[in-house]
Amino acid sequence: MEMTTPTGAAILRALAPAFVPLPPMRLEKTAFGAGGREIPGRTNCLRLLIGEPLEGADNQAGLESARMCLLTTEIDDMNPELYGPLLDRLFAAKARDASLVPIVMKKGRPGVSVRVLCDETRRGALLEILLRHTTTFGVKTAWVERHCLRREVKEMATPYGPIRVKIGYWGDQAIKAAPEFEDCRRAAETTGAPIGDVYRSAERSYENARDEA
Length: 213
Description:
Layout: H1 6-15, E1 25-34, E2 45-53, H2 57-60, E3 64-75, H3 83-92, E4 97-104, E5 110-118, H4 123-133, E6 140-148, E7 150-156, E8 163-170, E9 173-179, H5 181-191, H6 195-212
Antiparallel strand pairs: 1-2, 3-5, 3-6, 4-5, 7-8, 8-9
Helix pairs in contact: 5-6
Protein backbone atom coordinates (compact mmCIF):
# COMPACT_ATOMS: atom_id res chain seq x y z
CA MET A 1 0.00 0.00 0.00
CA GLU A 2 1.32 3.44 -0.92
CA MET A 3 1.86 5.45 2.29
CA THR A 4 2.81 8.76 0.66
CA THR A 5 2.61 10.55 -2.66
CA PRO A 6 5.64 11.38 -4.82
CA THR A 7 5.11 15.05 -3.97
CA GLY A 8 4.99 14.29 -0.25
CA ALA A 9 8.16 12.20 -0.48
CA ALA A 10 9.95 15.02 -2.34
CA ILE A 11 8.93 17.57 0.31
CA LEU A 12 10.17 15.29 3.10
CA ARG A 13 13.48 14.73 1.31
CA ALA A 14 14.01 18.45 0.81
CA LEU A 15 13.08 19.50 4.35
CA ALA A 16 14.48 16.53 6.27
CA PRO A 17 17.66 15.13 4.66
CA ALA A 18 18.04 12.66 7.57
CA PHE A 19 15.82 10.98 10.16
CA VAL A 20 17.21 11.73 13.62
CA PRO A 21 15.86 11.80 17.19
CA LEU A 22 13.89 14.91 18.14
CA PRO A 23 16.51 17.56 19.05
CA PRO A 24 16.24 19.71 22.19
CA MET A 25 14.18 22.75 21.23
CA ARG A 26 12.09 25.62 22.53
CA LEU A 27 8.65 24.61 21.26
CA GLU A 28 6.69 27.40 19.54
CA LYS A 29 3.84 25.63 17.73
CA THR A 30 2.38 22.15 17.54
CA ALA A 31 -0.28 20.60 15.33
CA PHE A 32 -1.96 17.20 15.15
CA GLY A 33 -4.22 15.80 12.46
CA ALA A 34 -5.88 12.51 11.55
CA GLY A 35 -6.48 11.20 8.04
CA GLY A 36 -9.74 9.77 6.78
CA ARG A 37 -8.35 6.48 5.45
CA GLU A 38 -8.49 3.40 7.70
CA ILE A 39 -5.13 1.59 7.54
CA PRO A 40 -5.04 -1.82 9.28
CA GLY A 41 -2.31 -1.95 11.92
CA ARG A 42 -1.36 1.72 11.52
CA THR A 43 -2.48 5.00 13.04
CA ASN A 44 -3.19 7.43 10.21
CA CYS A 45 -2.10 10.57 12.08
CA LEU A 46 0.44 13.32 11.62
CA ARG A 47 2.07 15.51 14.27
CA LEU A 48 4.03 18.68 13.50
CA LEU A 49 6.34 20.46 15.94
CA ILE A 50 7.94 23.85 15.24
CA GLY A 51 10.55 25.38 17.51
CA GLU A 52 14.00 26.90 17.92
CA PRO A 53 16.89 24.51 18.68
CA LEU A 54 18.55 24.94 22.06
CA GLU A 55 22.27 25.65 22.07
CA GLY A 56 23.58 22.70 24.05
CA ALA A 57 27.12 21.91 25.15
CA ASP A 58 27.72 19.83 22.02
CA ASN A 59 26.90 22.79 19.75
CA GLN A 60 29.03 25.20 21.78
CA ALA A 61 31.94 22.78 21.63
CA GLY A 62 31.64 22.35 17.88
CA LEU A 63 31.23 18.59 18.15
CA GLU A 64 30.61 16.63 14.97
CA SER A 65 27.49 14.50 15.50
CA ALA A 66 25.97 11.82 13.30
CA ARG A 67 23.28 9.14 13.49
CA MET A 68 24.84 5.74 12.93
CA CYS A 69 23.89 2.07 12.93
CA LEU A 70 25.25 -0.39 15.51
CA LEU A 71 25.22 -4.07 14.48
CA THR A 72 25.72 -6.60 17.27
CA THR A 73 25.86 -10.37 17.44
CA GLU A 74 27.02 -12.85 20.09
CA ILE A 75 28.99 -15.97 19.11
CA ASP A 76 30.17 -18.93 21.19
CA ASP A 77 31.00 -21.58 18.58
CA MET A 78 33.42 -20.02 16.07
CA ASN A 79 37.11 -20.79 15.56
CA PRO A 80 39.03 -17.87 17.16
CA GLU A 81 41.40 -17.79 14.18
CA LEU A 82 38.53 -16.53 12.01
CA TYR A 83 37.96 -13.28 13.91
CA GLY A 84 41.01 -11.53 12.43
CA PRO A 85 39.91 -12.06 8.80
CA LEU A 86 36.37 -11.07 9.82
CA LEU A 87 37.55 -7.69 11.11
CA ASP A 88 39.57 -7.20 7.92
CA ARG A 89 36.43 -7.80 5.83
CA LEU A 90 34.35 -5.43 7.95
CA PHE A 91 36.84 -2.57 7.67
CA ALA A 92 37.29 -3.22 3.93
CA ALA A 93 33.50 -2.80 3.62
CA LYS A 94 33.81 0.66 5.23
CA ALA A 95 32.75 -0.09 8.80
CA ARG A 96 33.43 3.01 10.90
CA ASP A 97 34.53 0.79 13.78
CA ALA A 98 34.46 -2.88 14.72
CA SER A 99 35.32 -4.54 18.02
CA LEU A 100 35.33 -7.91 19.78
CA VAL A 101 34.17 -8.08 23.40
CA PRO A 102 34.59 -11.24 25.54
CA ILE A 103 31.32 -12.25 27.22
CA VAL A 104 29.78 -15.17 29.14
CA MET A 105 26.75 -16.66 27.40
CA LYS A 106 24.07 -19.17 28.37
CA LYS A 107 25.18 -22.32 30.18
CA GLY A 108 28.34 -20.45 31.22
CA ARG A 109 29.91 -20.66 27.78
CA PRO A 110 32.63 -18.11 26.95
CA GLY A 111 31.72 -16.14 23.86
CA VAL A 112 32.45 -13.04 21.82
CA SER A 113 30.21 -10.05 21.14
CA VAL A 114 30.95 -8.64 17.68
CA ARG A 115 30.04 -4.96 17.40
CA VAL A 116 30.11 -2.97 14.17
CA LEU A 117 29.47 0.77 13.84
CA CYS A 118 28.56 1.98 10.36
CA ASP A 119 26.79 4.56 8.25
CA GLU A 120 23.20 3.72 7.36
CA THR A 121 24.15 3.20 3.71
CA ARG A 122 26.63 0.44 4.65
CA ARG A 123 24.29 -1.51 6.92
CA GLY A 124 23.20 -4.06 4.30
CA ALA A 125 26.72 -4.94 3.13
CA LEU A 126 28.06 -5.31 6.67
CA LEU A 127 25.04 -7.32 7.79
CA GLU A 128 25.70 -9.76 4.95
CA ILE A 129 29.34 -10.14 6.02
CA LEU A 130 28.32 -10.98 9.59
CA LEU A 131 25.79 -13.56 8.43
CA ARG A 132 28.00 -15.12 5.76
CA HIS A 133 31.37 -15.13 7.51
CA THR A 134 30.46 -16.03 11.10
CA THR A 135 28.49 -18.86 12.70
CA THR A 136 25.73 -16.53 13.92
CA PHE A 137 22.10 -16.96 12.85
CA GLY A 138 21.02 -13.42 13.73
CA VAL A 139 22.23 -9.83 14.11
CA LYS A 140 20.71 -7.02 16.17
CA THR A 141 20.44 -3.45 14.84
CA ALA A 142 20.31 -0.28 16.94
CA TRP A 143 20.48 3.38 16.00
CA VAL A 144 22.95 5.47 17.98
CA GLU A 145 24.28 9.03 18.03
CA ARG A 146 28.05 9.45 17.68
CA HIS A 147 29.69 12.68 18.88
CA CYS A 148 33.28 13.49 17.91
CA LEU A 149 35.68 16.30 18.62
CA ARG A 150 36.47 18.57 15.69
CA ARG A 151 39.75 17.30 14.28
CA GLU A 152 42.75 18.76 12.52
CA VAL A 153 45.86 17.00 11.22
CA LYS A 154 49.24 18.76 11.26
CA GLU A 155 52.59 17.47 10.03
CA MET A 156 55.36 17.74 12.61
CA ALA A 157 59.09 17.65 11.86
CA THR A 158 61.03 15.08 13.91
CA PRO A 159 64.57 13.62 13.76
CA TYR A 160 62.96 10.56 12.16
CA GLY A 161 61.14 12.46 9.43
CA PRO A 162 57.75 14.19 9.19
CA ILE A 163 54.99 12.66 11.35
CA ARG A 164 51.33 13.63 11.15
CA VAL A 165 49.62 14.48 14.44
CA LYS A 166 45.84 14.37 14.91
CA ILE A 167 44.50 17.20 17.12
CA GLY A 168 41.10 17.26 18.83
CA TYR A 169 39.31 20.55 19.64
CA TRP A 170 36.67 21.41 22.24
CA GLY A 171 35.42 24.67 20.82
CA ASP A 172 38.58 26.59 19.92
CA GLN A 173 40.73 24.82 22.51
CA ALA A 174 43.00 21.93 21.50
CA ILE A 175 42.51 19.40 24.30
CA LYS A 176 44.34 16.34 22.95
CA ALA A 177 46.73 15.24 20.25
CA ALA A 178 47.97 11.88 19.00
CA PRO A 179 50.67 11.02 16.44
CA GLU A 180 49.47 8.87 13.54
CA PHE A 181 50.62 5.35 14.35
CA GLU A 182 51.22 4.30 10.74
CA ASP A 183 53.54 7.29 10.20
CA CYS A 184 55.46 6.32 13.34
CA ARG A 185 55.66 2.70 12.24
CA ARG A 186 57.02 3.58 8.80
CA ALA A 187 59.57 5.99 10.27
CA ALA A 188 60.71 3.34 12.77
CA GLU A 189 61.13 0.77 10.00
CA THR A 190 63.05 3.23 7.82
CA THR A 191 65.41 4.50 10.53
CA GLY A 192 65.66 1.41 12.72
CA ALA A 193 64.61 3.45 15.77
CA PRO A 194 62.21 2.05 18.40
CA ILE A 195 58.66 3.03 17.51
CA GLY A 196 58.15 4.40 21.03
CA ASP A 197 60.99 6.88 20.48
CA VAL A 198 59.42 8.05 17.21
CA TYR A 199 56.02 8.44 18.89
CA ARG A 200 57.39 10.47 21.80
CA SER A 201 59.44 12.64 19.44
CA ALA A 202 56.29 13.54 17.48
CA GLU A 203 54.50 14.37 20.74
CA ARG A 204 57.33 16.68 21.83
CA SER A 205 57.42 18.35 18.42
CA TYR A 206 53.70 19.12 18.64
CA GLU A 207 53.95 20.36 22.24
CA ASN A 208 56.85 22.68 21.35
CA ALA A 209 54.94 24.10 18.36
CA ARG A 210 51.84 24.59 20.53
CA ASP A 211 53.77 26.39 23.28
CA GLU A 212 55.43 28.71 20.76
CA ALA A 213 52.12 29.66 19.12
